[in-house]
Design a protein that fits this description.
Protein name: UPF0056 membrane protein
Number of strands: 0
Largest sheet: none
Family: Belongs to the UPF0056 (MarC) family.
Number of helices: 8
Subcellular location: Cell membrane
Pfam families: MarC
Keywords: Cell membrane, Membrane, Transmembrane, Transmembrane helix
Structural class: mainly alpha
Strand content: under 5%
Length: about 200
């Protein structure tokens, strides 16, 4: 029950918003629609569950991997901040630096990975551990998994209702939010690293 004592609505909402911005499931609607047209049917439940499990698994296993190679969470969080920064720049400027939307199969690949639980999302998930308690990050992941499932189910309807222009505006707004979060993540963890390694 000690695990639940750290539950915070504020941290959960923040973790949810950070992951929501990185996953950018609404911005991926056109890609999802094109994949649906190409493969006929996308197994929404399987894609969402696999993506959620990947994020939760990396939240715990990722830390052990870091310890194995001798990297602390603060350093990894700073690296994650750079990744989030690049993703934010992509979203704001509408450029493509590292994403690849080419697909060979539906559902788990490329929907669950790398479209939803890609390198940026997994890096962000682990980076959040430097700032928030695990229970709140897990809740944020679960909420995003539910949202991903819903969007996968109604992707064609969302595209028709919102239109490409509205989706692009939404993408840029979340890009700016993500940019601010990446700067906060960098400064907080850099200050911690500075305090740990520099002694006066």
């Amino acid at each position: 029950m000690e695990f639940l004592e750290h539950f915070s609505i504020k941290e959960t909402v923040t973790a949810f918003m950070v992951l929501f911005a990185v996953i950018d499931i609404l911005g991926s609607v056109p890609v999802i629609v094109s994949l649906r047209q190409k493969f006929g049917k996308i197994e929404s439940e399987k894609a969402a569950v696999v993506a959620g499990l990947l994020m939760i698994s990396f939240l715990f296993i990722g830390d052990k991997i870091l310890k194995l190679i001798g990297v602390d969470v603060n350093s990894f969080a700073i690296a994650g901040a750079f990744v989030i920064f690049i993703i934010a720049i992509e979203m704001i400027l509408g450029i493509e630096i590292h994403k690849s939307n080419k697909a060979q199969a539906a559902s788990i690949v490329p929907i669950a990975f790398p479209l939803i639980a890609g390198a940026g999302t997994l890096t962000t998930t682990l980076s959040l551990r430097a700032e928030y308690h695990d229970i709140n990050i897990i809740c944020g992941i679960i909420l995003n998994t539910i949202l991903v499932y819903l969007v996968l189910r109604i992707a064609p309807w969302i595209e028709r209702k919102m239109g490409e222009g509205s989706l692009q505006v939404l993408q840029k707004v979340f890009g700016i939010i993500l940019l601010a979060i990446s700067i906060k993540l960098f400064t907080a963890n850099f200050a911690q690293l500075f305090q740990n390694y520099v002694h006066f």
